[in-house]
Amino acid sequence: MRYAVISDVHANMEALTAVTDSIAAAGVETVVCLGDTVGYGPEPQAAVAAVRQLAAVSVLGNHDRAVFTEGAEARFNEWAEDAICWTREELDAEEIDFLSALPLSLVHEGAFMAHASPRDPASWAYVMDERDAAAQFGGFHETLCLIGHSHEPGFFEWDGTKAAELFGDVLVMESDKRYIVNAGSVGQPRDGDPRAAYAVVDDDELRGDIIRVEYDTERTGRKIVQAGLPAFLAERLTHGT
Ligand code: ZN
After folding, report:
1. How far is the CA of 167 from the centre of ligand 1 (A)?
2. Which string of DSSP letters, residue by residue, matches 41-55?
3. Phi, psi at 185, each rounded to 5°
4. 118 C-alpha to center of ligand 1: Å?
5. Computed over its alpha carbons, how large is the radius of gyration of the chain?
6. What's the half-sphere exposure (Cβ side, CA atoms, 13 Å) at 82?
7. Ligand 1 centroid vs 105 CA: distance in angstroms?
8. Could you tell me which residues come within 8 angstroms of residue 213 by beta carbon, excluding any fewer than 6 positions away?
9. What is the Å distance from ligand 1's center to 172 Cα?
10. pLDDT tens-digit profile of 131-176?
11. What is the pTM of this model?
12. Hey, which residues does 175 pair with through a beta bridge?
């Protein structure tokens, strides 16, 4: 099956709309979401509504959790903390209920999905390099694991004894190996490329693609400032950092 993987939308509707259009144009009908639909961005209600309509399944992200977990915001940096408290006031009870019902992990179409760490999803550990990845492959039994959280798209491969990071936007999977795909971030990329990121996985063709889509970062930035959210959160969108 061929499906799209979105993650870390972070209440950025310009980015999500551009990605939704790209997914439709590519003829991909199924979408899964890896969490952090809210936090940082200026349109949490619209983002929750859009993800609910778009995604067949979703898992919980750490920003999603913080919105319905009083006190959790203290574990974030000051910009994220401000945005979490602001988001908490924006969402209604029904939207909070939707977020709080999301699972930490699930298996969909044979792929393990978690926001951050397959081995211990509630730890919100980052998978940034081969060493991190090597520690994670024992945390799931499936051939393929889908994650987000770092806002840096990429691929890791497990050959049975060691992990390797695979570079580039295309993953060609070998049937005797296992993989972690990081879909990157729709709404706040941090790999130096400001374009929205998402992934397309085809488990019949054994292929994964990271897709980048331009959107109006200035427009989202203006909405962030108008909402009274930290200006830094607007500025970073233009650099993709
Ligand atoms: Zn995130």
Report:
1. 21
2. SS-HHHHHHHHHHH-
3. -125, 130
4. 16
5. 17
6. 14
7. 16
8. 15, 18, 19, 21, 22, 195, 196, 197, 198
9. 26
10. 999 999 999 999 999 999 999 999 999 999 999 999 999 999 999 9
11. 0.97
12. none
